[in-house]
Amino acid sequence: MATLTKVSACAATSCAFNNNGCTAPAITVGGESGSATCATLITLDARGGLPVADGQVGACQRLECKHNTDLMCAIDAVDMVGDTAQCASYEVE
Q1: In terms of Cα–Cα distance, which of 37, 34, 92 is closest to 65?
Q2: Element spanning 43, H or E
Q3: Where does the record place the DUF1540 domain (predicted)?
Q4: Which residues of 10-39 are buried (b: 16+ CB within 10 A; e: fewer)?
């Protein structure tokens, strides 16, 4: 894999890394079996991260997801939906 997967949209507006999109340099997709959520989500009264919304998926802990290759997300882009930033691309093989 030559490139990281882009976070194309994030609906978790309470996250400190969401400033009209994901500004974290790289997120980790975590969660529990049957669910994939952004483990980088943090609720603070401040905004942080990159100056532009250009977040990427740095690692994926959901081994059962069909897009997980060697702990990396192997699709072009993901959308993080809902207040808990669930990965909309999560699919079990």
Answers
A1: 92
A2: none
A3: 10-38, 60-84
A4: bebeebbbbbebbbbeebbbbbeeeebbbe
Counting as low any pLDDT under 70, the low residues of the chain are: 1
Whole-structure pTM over 0.90, yes or no? yes
Summarised one tens digit per residue, pLDDT across range 4-25 is: 999 999 999 999 999 999 999 9
CB 80 within 8 A of CB 10: yes
Distance of alpha carbon 4 from alpha carbon 43, whole angstroms: 24
Ordered alpha helix ranges (H), 33-87: none
- Structure tokens of 7? 């976070």
Owner of token pair 């483990």: 39
Which two tokens mark 42?
């943090």
Query: Of 3, 68, 66, nearest to 29 (Cα)?
Result: 68
In this structure, what DSSP letter does residue 84 have?
A: T
